[in-house]
Amino acid sequence: MPSWLQRAGIGLALSAALATAAAAAPVTVTLWSWSPVAPTMKAMVAAIEKAHPDIHIAATIEPHTAYFTALKAAQASGTLPDLIGLPPGAYTQEYRPDLQALDSVAAGAWGADWQKNFAPALLTQARLGNPKGDTQFYMLPEEAEVLNLWYDRAAFAKAGITAPPATFDELVSDAAKLRKVGFIAFYQGGGTGLFDNWVFMQIAAQTDLADLLAAENGKPVWNKPGMLAAAKVWQRLFSEHVVQPGALSALQYPTGANLFAAGRVGMISLGSWWLQETHLSTNPALATMSGYGKFFFPAVTAGGSASPPLGGVDIGWGITKNAVKSPAVEAAAKTVFKELISGAGEQVALDQLNDLPAFNGMKPTQALPAHLQALYQTYIAELATAHPHQIGNPVIYNALAANLQAIGAGTKTPEAALAAVQKVAESQAAN
Amino acid sequence: MAVATRAAASIPRPGRKAERGRVLGASPLEAALYVVPAAFLFAVFILLPILSNIVASLFSARGRFGLANYIQAANDPVFRVAVENSLLWVALSLLLEIAVGFALAALIELYLPRGQAVFRTLLFLPMVITPSVIALVFTTLYAPDYGLLFGLFNWLGLASYFPALLGTPSTATIAIVAVNVWQWSGFFVLMYCVGIAAIDRELLDAAAIDGARGFSRIRALIWPLCRGTTVSLVVLGTIQALQQFPLIYLMTEGGPANASQTLATYIFQTGFSENEMPYASAIAVVLFLLALALVAVEYALAGGGISLAARPRDVPG
Question: Domain range holding A89?
Answer without folding.
Answer: 25-144+314-384
